[in-house]
Design a protein that fits this description.
The protein is α+β, with helices and mostly antiparallel strands and about 190 residues long. It has 2 domains: about 70 residues, D-amino Acid Aminotransferase, Chain A, domain 1 (2-Layer Sandwich); about 110 residues, D-amino Acid Aminotransferase, Chain A, domain 2. About 15% of the residues lie in helices and about 35% in strands. The strands form 3 sheets. Strands 10-9-8-11-12 form a 5-stranded mixed β-sheet, with helices on one face. It has a 4-stranded antiparallel β-sheet with strand order 2-1-3-4. Strands 7-6-5-13 form a 4-stranded mixed β-sheet, with no helix packed on it. The longest helix is centred in the N-terminal third of the chain and has 16 residues. The protein is globular. The chain starts with a strand and ends with a strand. About 25% of the residues are buried.
């Protein structure tokens, strides 16, 4: 089963175009969907005030839609680890990521590497700033909807970023549908 997470802010689902693209691409590639669906048609009973995380669980068709209150938490302590498993689609089953995270209890979050290159974290895509330009790994494990939108807007530039080059950047940012794009200027890297 796959998952699409949508930010609901004061009753409005944000950036549905990007969620629809990934949702329908995944349905086509994994389940052979012949026609696209519009997530907006399935978002009923939206809470009208506050900040909510909408979770859409699906296979070929939508199985479940739920709304959960959301509070932002940004991690500050990261462990740099290798992750070789496939995560090209946003699976509801995150057990491989949860197991890997449990092996690093000293860290709030993991910075993932594959073949010596940075990819993302277990919860978000990443960007790194150097000379006022934000770069994002060109080969993330998961191509997030926020990452895609910011690249199309010209705010992010894909690049191969070696794991051992993390210290050569001025700033780290996390991005996903719920976080948006959040810079973390002070963080700790646990090796």
């Amino acid at each position: 089963m796959l998952l699409e997470t949508i930010r609901i802010e004061e009753g409005h689902p944000l950036h549905l175009e990007y969620h629809n693209r990934r949702f329908n691409r995944s349905r086509r590639e994994l389940f052979g969907a012949a026609e696209d669906l519009d997530l907006a048609d399935f978002l009923t009973d939206i809470p009208f005030s506050g900040l909510w995380r909408c979770r859409v669980l699906y296979t070929l068709y939508i199985e479940k839609v739920e709304y959960l209150p959301y509070t932002l938490h940004l991690p500050r302590r990261f462990a740099l680890v290798e992750f070789e498993e496939d995560y090209a689609y946003k699976y509801a089953d995150r057990s491989a990521l949860t197991r890997l995270k449990s092996t690093h209890p000293e860290a709030e979050e993991l910075l993932l590497c594959r073949d010596g290159l940075l990819t993302d974290t277990t919860i978000a895509n990443i960007a790194l700033r150097r000379d006022d330009i934000w770069y994002t790994p060109s080969q993330p494990l998961l191509e997030g909807s926020t990452r895609q939108r910011l690249m199309e807007e010209g705010c992010l530039f894909p690049a191969d970023i070696p794991c051992d080059a993390l210290g050569t950047f001025d700033e780290l940012a996390l991005m996903n549908a719920m976080i948006g794009f959040r810079s973390i200027s002070q963080y700790e890297l646990i090796r």
